Amino acid sequence: MSPALAAGLQIAVVLAVLAVLYVPVGDYMARVYESRRDLRVESVLYRLCRINPHTEQTWYGYAGSVLGFSMAGVLFLYVLQRIQGVLPLSGDLSGVSPAVAFNTAVSFVTNTNWQSYAPETTMSNLTQPVGLAVQNFVSAAVGMAVAVALIRGFVRVSRGGEIGNFWVDLTRGSLRILLPFSFVIALILLSQGVIQSFHTGFESTGLDGNSVTNALAPVASQEAIKELGTNGGGILAANSAHPFENPTPVSNVVEILAILLIPVTLTRTFGTMVGDRKQGLTLLAVMGVLWGSLLAVTLAAESGQRGVAATAAGAMMEGKEVRFGIPSTTLFAVSTTGTSTGAVNSAHDSLSPLGGGAVLLNMLLGEIAPGGVGTGLYGILVLALIAVFVGGLLVGRTPEYLGKKLRQREITLAALSVLVMPALVLIGTGITVILSSTTGFQGNGGDPGTPGSIHGFSEVLYAFASASNNNGSAFGGLTVTSDWFQSALGLCMLFGRFLPIIFVLALAGSLASQKKTAAGAGTLPTAGPMFTGLLTGTVVLVAALTFFPALALGPIAEALQ
């Protein structure tokens, strides 16, 4: 089968399954967050935690709950890593060093799952499920809760600007959506040969005749939520390229579907909750155009390379699993960088300059194609408000979106939310490159001025883009174990996650306190092909103006060499 045909078949399967699940899953999630009834297990949890599920929160209270819960998660995960050596299921592993423990705790709580360590030799089989996997669930549920709070801002009219109850949204997202979906996906992965074991490893004889220790872990259960929650942290160092995590082409397609499922169907949830499903389809169309365009560029770049690692057909196979090939690799790479997942089934550092630049641009667009669980939806909604503002200037009317006026306060909050990520990426990259002798960056295998350092710059840019967008994937040629990278990337993860959340929740509260206005003859329509083009252009224009100089110094320059 030709690469083009194989790619087309896999893309068709993924799109067909998503199309079938789009309506039922999207409407189910809308019912979950709009329901007035609590499950029995939820009621028990509320009583134990002394939570009144019928109390509504303003954006201040909602944001305070998000921050308090997340910071408690950082502290718990940090302590768990530091003392794991004296806990059960640790084998001969000791406690994690302070710098790595801090970086990892922040990484998993912010849904980034950046890993500067080898999981097999660092994290125990207790730390993995009790610490890391639990954060995979709740960090994803936090993102979904914030997205739903913003939707309520468009739907509700309340004098106090109440946008829901964070604790209820967190509980329902975890128990009613993520947990049952993950259970089904884990069973499918088990059927494909993904391992599930609490043993630390087993001995085998390698091809050279020497004894080899193979690491084991409860992989299937964690692999499911790793992809479904757009987390991405590997249970094993090779991540989804490891045959224990992703053994077959079928498991590969299942994992890609898990990555895309909730971000895509949340657009249906949005349309259902606001009472206009065309609005959700418009957002989905923008996501689809961006995702499809970058997939086409990456597939063309990786299929047309020639060199020592190329096949007879010209496809670059360096850094790729032969059981997946070019089509599955590019489909996975574009999906994972477009959804803030960070899981990989290949070495992104081995992608061609154009292919690596495309997946880097996928993150620099703001992780909205289709974005992370919850984060993608509220990210593209913020950009939609900016697009409406631009359109309002063109037609000479006060901009409105879903019956809510976009005044100075709303546009300021939207702009601040959009500007956080570029500031973190560009400042972090600039400091690292300028202070290379103290930050630990030494170009690509030497001094930054040596030939090949263009790729070294791309590696640093990719690292800060990944951390600031809470993605977690990396160009693996860059060593990030120094104190500078551990702390700088950790701070980028924190600010890149929680500053936009604060601005988005403040925006939701401001919108909820407004009365709805009837659309007039001059109101810009926000559903249909015209707004799809306007929003797509806004996304591309913002990214192009912000990051073109940096991209020109890295991937573009490397591709032109």
Roughly what is the average pLDDT, rounded to an integer?
Answer: 91
Termini, distance in Å? 32 Å
Major sheet details: 2 strands, antiparallel
Helix/strand order, N-terminal first = HHHHHHHEEHHHHHHEEHHHHH
Helix content: 55-70%
Provide the low-confidence segments as ranges. 306-313, 444-452
Q: Strand fraction band?
A: under 5%
- Total helices: the number is 18
Annotation, overall tally of beta strands: 4
Q: Describe the oligomeric state of these chains in a short phrase.
A: single chain
Instruction: Give the strand order of the largest sheet, numbering strands 1, 2, ... along the chain.
Output: 1-2
Overall 3D form:
globular
Per-chain topology:
Blueprint: H1 3-34, H2 40-48, H3 59-82, H4 98-109, H5 119-122, H6 127-155, H7 166-191, E1 201-205, E2 211-215, H8 219-228, H9 249-274, H10 277-303, H11 325-337, H12 353-364, H13 375-395, E3 400-401, E4 404-405, H14 408-434, H15 436-439, H16 453-468, H17 483-512, H18 529-560
Antiparallel strand pairs: 1-2, 3-4
Tell me about this structure.
- Belongs to the KdpA family.
- It is a single chain.
- The chain has 561 residues and is mainly α.
- It has a domain at 396-560.
- The protein contains 18 helices and four strands.
- The protein has helices spanning 3-34, 40-48, 59-82, 98-109, 119-122, 127-155, 166-191, 219-228, 249-274, 277-303, 325-337, 353-364, 375-395, 408-434, 436-439, 453-468, 483-512, 529-560; strands at 201-205, 211-215, 400-401, 404-405.
- The strands form two sheets. Strands 1-2 form a two-stranded antiparallel ribbon. A two-stranded antiparallel sheet has the order 3-4.
- The longest helix is centred in the first third of the chain and has 32 residues, at 3-34.
- Mean pLDDT is 91; it is low at 306-313 and 444-452.
